[in-house]
């Protein structure tokens, strides 16, 4: 009898031990995976039990907020101006987030350690968990001007504007766009179905073209080549004479480098200023060959290209291209070949020149406040890189002023404001229309805004209005006017 009881007791102890092990495994090892499991409906409902914080632009315009409802889901996400800010705010779907909704998620949903005291107060008072509010650096007027002007072009493209002295992003627009509300509902079937439709759309509306994709920058890159030329010898300036043949003979290839449309560039020797005004290819191709791949790549890196960057969303790396032969360097030096830039990187180049050679780290989040409006964190502008000397920046500014006043960018002129800029028309795949580019900053003597505009397939061969100066420059002008008005 005692033996039977002992066996039963041992069996009970063994089962109890196994039960404790299982509990510990569930709580300590599998807790997170079980919580994240899509079949966990409790987790699904709790996701909407939190009053997520607001996302605002310029401290005044609400671009995302949570609205209380009387249904099974207590709070639903709203985007009052969804399409306008879609690529900045992102979406809050039943199982994931994107853009600012993702990068600032622990603040927006109240789970951040910075909100521990607030969570304790809410628990004590019985209030729902409330998240922090995120205020963006976006200038609402600039954002709308960029959106409207790019949409009127009828093309896909990107506009990104920066405050040169701080790095604050004033506008970030990518077209085509989408409505975040369609991806933020509670009906999984509808949300996921709509996401799949957008993901398969050939126009790529989910793609943030300002930071997630790179493009050949065309002649806008000539400001980087000019910077490398000036930095290589301090005695050089905007009026230094450079060789400008009608066609540049490239080594080891029969595909020589002509100027746009096969035109001549002056009389064969011109000033650097004239070459940039008329956007001649041959002088900048020769400069690239003379300086070499390493010097050109180093100059681009000084503008911040290739360095890890988040704004807070991750930014695709821009690159001059792999080391090949001299012909490839010439083509890359005029923004072609393997030269690939994000619109944000080109805006950083313009901003660096505007800021006397110093590139500030770009950022989107201006301030974080708790549910009561008290500041938790605030942006602290920081230097990202020193691109060129202040003297070189002054020479480049002088030349870019000439491009707008006397050269290819006259459609960027603003009455009473001195504008500095550079146009670009970038060749793409065979048979495809080229991209239209424009980078700029204003006022030239005290810059408040630096901008890059890229219009996909926005320029048609044949010159005239269908160039970076005709397609992209007017968009930049509209945005600059919105900031400077």
TrEMBL record:
Domain Penicillin-binding protein transpeptidase: 157-481
Domain Penicillin binding protein A dimerisation intervals: 52-134
Protein name from the UniProt record: Penicillin-binding protein 2
Pfam family, one: PBP_dimer_2
Keyword line: Signal
InterPro entries referenced in this protein's UniProt entry, alphabetically: Beta-lactam/transpept (IPR050515), PBPA_dimer (IPR054120), PCN-bd_Tpept (IPR001460)
Top-rank taxon: Bacteria
Signal peptide: 1-27
């Amino acid at each position: 009898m005692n033996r039977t009881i002992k066996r039963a007791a041992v069996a009970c102890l063994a089962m109890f031990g196994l039960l404790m092990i299982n509990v510990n495994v569930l709580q300590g090892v599998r807790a997170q995976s079980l919580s994240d499991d899509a079949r966990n409906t409790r987790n699904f409902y709790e996701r909407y039990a939190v009053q997520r914080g607001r996302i605002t632009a310029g401290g005044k315009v609400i671009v995302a907020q949570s609205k209380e409802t009387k249904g099974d889901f207590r709070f639903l996400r709203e985007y009052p101006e969804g399409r306008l800010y879609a690529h900045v705010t992102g979406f809050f779907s039943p199982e994931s987030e994107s853009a600012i909704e993702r990068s600032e998620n622990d603040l927006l949903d109240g789970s951040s350690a910075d909100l521990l005291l607030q969570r304790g107060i809410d628990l004590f008072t019985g209030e729902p968990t409330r998240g922090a509010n995120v205020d963006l650096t976006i200038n609402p007027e600039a954002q709308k001007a960029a959106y409207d002007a790019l949409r009127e072009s009828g093309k896909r493209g990107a506009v990104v504007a920066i405050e040169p002295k701080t790095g604050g992003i004033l506008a970030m627009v990518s077209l085509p766009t989408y409505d975040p509300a369609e991806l933020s509902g509670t009906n999984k079937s509808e949300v996921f179905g709509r996401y799949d439709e957008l993901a398969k759309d050939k126009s790529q509306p989910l793609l943030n073209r300002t930071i997630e994709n790179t493009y050949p920058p065309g002649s806008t890159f000539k400001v980087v080549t000019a910077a490398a030329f000036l930095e290589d010898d301090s005695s050089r300036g905007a009026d230094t004479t450079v060789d400008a043949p009608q066609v540049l003979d490239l080594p080891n290839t029969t595909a020589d480098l002509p100027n746009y449309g096969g035109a001549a560039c002056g009389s064969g020797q011109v000033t650097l200023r004239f070459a940039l005004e008329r956007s001649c290819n041959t002088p900048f191709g020769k400069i690239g060959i003379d300086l070499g791949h390493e010097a050109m790549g180093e100059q681009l890196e000084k503008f911040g290209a290739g360095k890890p960057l988040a704004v807070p969303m991750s930014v695709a790396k821009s690159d001059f291209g792999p080391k090949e032969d001299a012909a490839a360097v010439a083509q890359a030096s005029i923004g072609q070949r393997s030269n690939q830039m994000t619109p944000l990187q080109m805006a950083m180049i313009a901003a660096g020149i505007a800021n006397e050679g110093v590139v500030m780290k770009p950022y989107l989040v201006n301030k974080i406040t708790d549910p009561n409006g008290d500041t938790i964190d605030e942006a602290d502008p920081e230097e990202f890189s020193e691109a060129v000397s202040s003297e070189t920046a002054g020479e480049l500014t002088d030349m870019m002023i000439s491009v707008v006043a006397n050269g290819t960018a006259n459609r960027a002129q603003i009455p009473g404001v001195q504008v500095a800029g550079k146009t670009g028309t970038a060749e793409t795949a065979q048979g495809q229309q080229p991209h239209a580019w424009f980078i700029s900053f204003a006022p030239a003597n005290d810059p408040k805004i630096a901008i890059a505009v890229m219009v996909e397939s926005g320029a048609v061969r044949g010159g005239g209005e269908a160039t970076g100066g005709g397609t992209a420059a007017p968009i930049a002008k509209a945005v600059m006017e919105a900031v400077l008005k």
